Amino acid sequence: MTDLLNVEGVSKHYGGIYALKNACFSLRAGEVHALMGENGAGKSTLARVVAGATRANTATIKIEGQPVAIRTPLDAQTLGIGIIYQELDLFQHQTIAENMVVRNTRFREDAFTSKSRMKVFCLPYLRQVGLDHLDTGRMVSSLSIGEMQLLAIARALSMEARIILMDEPTSSLMDDAVERLFALIEKLKASGVAIVYVSHKMDEIFRICDRITVLRDGVTIDTREIAETNVQEVIEMMVGRKVDPSARSHRHLSDSVLMSVSGLTTKKLKGISFDLYRGEVLGIAGLVGAGRSELGAALFGLDRLSAGTVELDGRAFHPRSATDAMRRGMGLVPEDRKLEGLMMQMSILENGTMAVLPRMQSLGFIDKKLEEREMQSIHTRLALKFTSLTDPVASLSGGNQQKTLLARWLLLNPDVLFLDDPARGIDVAAKQDIYRMIDELAARGKGVLLVSSELPELLRCCDRILVLNNGRLTATLPAATTQECIMTAATQR
Ligand SMILES: Nc1ncnc2c1ncn2[C@@H]1O[C@H](COP(=O)(O)OP(=O)(O)OP(=O)(O)O)[C@@H](O)[C@H]1O
Ligand SMILES: [Mg+2]
User: CB atoms < 10 A from the CB of 228, how many?
Assistant: First the structure.
């Protein structure tokens, strides 16, 4: 049987650095095919080449045995190829409906394009991803990142493609939305659509994929039938060595309270109270929209409190801005690195040290040597993959951008660190490095608030887990809890 898609000899270099070297994979009709590899292995670049978003130096692409030329995203769309980008490419200052119809060959725009016609076009696809309750006239910038991810999926669906490339589509989705996506993938499969699925989540790969292709340093290592391989083998193919999952270091909780939150109320949060102890990693679980990120925003002075108090180290704490919060020893690694965290066109070094510059200045000059030395040591610990520290952050792979953001806050050495999904989009080996760093922070007596949409991560890292549900705190669970207990508290009415 001829493959639906055949991709061979794909090479792409940036300057002297190869992102892909003669990479290849093939796709059968109706299969879900995983692309896996460490951060920076070349997965997104390969997906973008097939989608016409990146021009390869060499590539041979065939659809049903026929060579095709894919030079632009429009070429790809015309050939029936759709993509959900890792860095969502939505227009923030346009509405949901506008984002769905723009450059969409399935929607005919004319002088009479009315809001209602756009809405009629969008609704079936929004319904499929569970976003049909939203007003299609809403600005995309007002959506949560999880909702944006669902919108990008709905847009790809609306193009009625027969090949869909999904680059980490679940990185910001909670379990309920992930389940909905998986059901959708089953339906697409049954109708003969082939899906390329890029993810770092092993459980997802083994659940929904039929075959897997592993990339390492831009080279295709091998393709396997999922039924004939296992997690350990895939990890070894990815990293070229054995990786031991790090165990959680045993901790004795101190009884000294570092931060005390009482009756915290904002537009979204309703009377949240809890204590964070020195040396504690306190997990924050909940569905998308439960108020997890809003808790960070409230503690950081980004959202106005309508009631409640926060004490830090026994002293009242009313941050008026992020800078104010930082001065008092708080750090926040935000959820969306692109919108809230990184300056994409600035260098890796500048992005990393931006928050600690005051400490590195003497007589108004930045001590460049100290800056590089500190950054280098953190980058080694996080195994950041880059060519030069002076390259723009935009040139890093998604996972390595996330690590840069984390590096900034680790350099700042705060007393309380609020981590909003820090391992999002991080490969299996690098995840272990991040977990070890969280252990290390706690062992040094810091307090860590850890938001995560991956329950195993919360169970691995935390001493206690707070569960938020619709802005309320519905449970405080011990480290020895189960995924079921967390889900029950997160979904109960
Ligand atoms: N515009 C660019 N300029 C320079 N280098 C780039 C550019 N885009 C990608 N690269 C490099 O190409 C390599 C592959 O990146 P790619 O984004 O494909 O990785 P990935 O496998 O998707 O990783 P991740 O899991 O972190 O998303 C990386 O080393 C990256 O730094
Ligand atoms: Mg990527």
Answer: 9
Whether 145 is in the pocket of ligand 1, judged by its Cβ within 6 Å, is: no
Angle at 282 between CA 280 and CA 288, to 5 degrees: 165
When divided into structural domains, the chain yields a total of: 2
Question: In terms of domains, do 170 and 233 share one?
Answer: yes
Domain enclosing residue 53, as ranges: 5-239
Specify whether 187 is located in the same domain as 287. Answer: no
Domain assignment of residue 185, yes or no? yes
The protein residue with its alpha carbon nearest to ligand 1, atom 22, reads: 44
Q: Which helix (H) or strand (E) holds 29?
A: none
CA distance 109 to 233: 49
* Residue nearest to ligand 1 atom 19, measured at CA: 40
Which DSSP state fits 253? P
CA of 138 to the centre of ligand 2 (A): 29
What's the gap in Å between 456 CA and the centre of ligand 1? 27
Ligand 1 within 6 A of CB of 402: no
Is 289 inside a domain boundary? yes
CATH number at residue 43: 3.40.50.300
Residue 212 shares a structural domain with residue 342: no
CA distance 380 to 249: 21
Q: Is 283 in the pocket of ligand 1 (CB under 6 A)?
A: no
Ligand 1 contacts CB of residue 213 (under 6 A): no
Q: Is 82 in the pocket of ligand 1 (CB under 6 A)?
A: no
Q: Whose CA is closest to atom 8 on ligand 1?
A: 395
Residues 194 and 325 grouped into a single domain? no
| DSSP-based three-state secondary structure for 351 | helix
Residues 376 and 463 in one domain: yes
Q: What is the helix (H) or strand (E) element at residue 398, kind and residue range?
A: helix 398-412
289 and 229 part of one domain? no
Do 281 and 214 reside in the same domain of the chain?
no
The rounded Å distance from CA 88 to ligand 2 centre is 12
**145-158 and 115-129 helices, crossing angle to 10°:** 110
* Alpha carbon of 60 to ligand 2 centroid (Å): 21
- Looking at the CA of 218, name the nearest ligand: 1
Which of these, 214, 196, 168, lies nearest to 33 by C-alpha position? 196
pLDDT tens digits in sequence order for the chain, 493 residues long: 789 999 999 999 998 889 999 999 999 999 999 999 999 999 999 999 999 999 999 999 999 999 999 999 999 999 999 999 988 889 999 999 999 998 888 888 776 668 888 899 999 999 998 899 999 999 999 988 788 888 998 999 999 899 999 999 888 777 778 888 999 899 899 989 999 999 998 989 999 999 999 999 999 999 999 999 999 899 999 988 776 777 777 677 788 999 999 999 999 999 999 999 999 999 999 887 788 888 988 988 888 889 999 999 999 998 888 788 888 888 888 776 665 678 888 888 888 877 776 666 655 666 777 777 877 887 887 888 888 888 999 899 888 888 888 888 888 888 999 998 888 888 888 888 889 889 988 998 999 999 987 888 999 999 999 999 999 999 999 988 888 899 889 888 7
Ligand nearest the Cα of residue 385 is: 1
**End-of-domain residue from the set 213, 239, 265:** 239
Q: Is 351 in the pocket of ligand 1 (CB under 6 A)?
A: no
Same domain, 261 and 224: no
